[in-house]
Amino acid sequence: MSKNKIVLCHVVAWLLYTVYCFVGIYIEKPQNQETIYWLQLSFILCMVIEFYYCYLLVYPLFLNRERLLFLVVAWAGAPLLFILFRYLLEETLYPVLLGFSNYGDDTTFEYIFFDNLYYATPMVVLSLVVWSVQEAFRKEKENKLLRQEKTQAELAFLKSQVNPHFLYNTLNYLYAQAYPVSEKLADAILKLSDMMRYMLHESPDGKVALEKEVNYLRSFIDIFRLRFEDRFFVDFTVDGHVDGQQIGALVLIPFVENAFKHGVADDPQVPIHISLIVMPHGLKFTVTNRISGSQKDQTTGIGLNNIRRRLELLYPHQHELLIKNDGQVHEAYLELSNL
Length: 339
Prior knowledge:
GO terms for molecular function: phosphorelay sensor kinase activity. This is Histidine kinase. The chain is of the alpha+beta class. The chain has 2 domains: 3-153, no CATH class; 210-337, Heat Shock Protein 90. 62% of the residues lie in helices and 13% in strands. It has 9 helices and 7 strands; from the N terminus they run ααααααβαββαββαββ. The chain has helices spanning 3-28, 33-63, 68-97, 109-160, 164-178, 183-199, 210-228, 253-262, 304-314, and strands at 207-209, 234-239, 246-248, 272-279, 282-290, 319-325, 329-337. The chain has a 5-stranded mixed sheet with strand order 2-4-5-7-6, covered by helices on one side. Strands 1-3 form a two-stranded antiparallel sheet. Strand 4 and strand 5 form a beta hairpin. Helix 2 packs antiparallel against helix 3.
């Protein structure tokens, strides 16, 4: 369900509940009916505040991430929020604006506290139920999409299996034929063979050695350099030790591919900057390029939308992806932790 539909459902539910309460007051026709309307309105408003405090803040931040201590503290604050707002409205604001309050002058604060604690508790539970049901539907939808994506990926993979050994042998043959003619061409064929082998490599968790990912990036850049020869300006730097670390296969390449597709690579004044900083248990990867006035390549590669999806699956709550684009310069920044 889309966010707009969820918001609409919430608005309709609260409106129906408000109408139900007001109709009940109208039918009963109690003394001081107008006063009861105002008190019912403030009561519902405090319920709304408490409900969305739990629904939008407490449960998404703490329950979903299993921060139980913070959850208990925030949970205890929900009834206090209800009591505070109701006291401010009915015992502070109403006497000034409307000339009446809910409780009498002789009512102790202790009585007000426990009386409102009784009314505040159901909203904590109701908000948990609503949030849990919505999360269950969201996760079910997410799992359904994952199953569809897995099926599509398996079909695409099967279609691409034109006997890899045949392709490797063919490239090796082309390498042997090209070497006497042009070492540059032979080297490009060899790099292409290594790249294909890397792309078809499978691992149980979808991760590979970071060193192999970096070598793939270097080969990709070298092959792309053939298109421009001496008019190719890319600054690729690697700081830190890449050995001994694991990373999701082909996680970094889409950002470089995107820079080559949409960026300017033949201007020495504004080269494409690619920076990889490797830390003991993480990395920072930045790709910066000036945006070209015309798109050079229509191929899509893996695509940034797909890489966002893969990052959510491979590094949940362990990555930060920032994309900046001011119309002149495009910058992609990726930070991974717990490699």
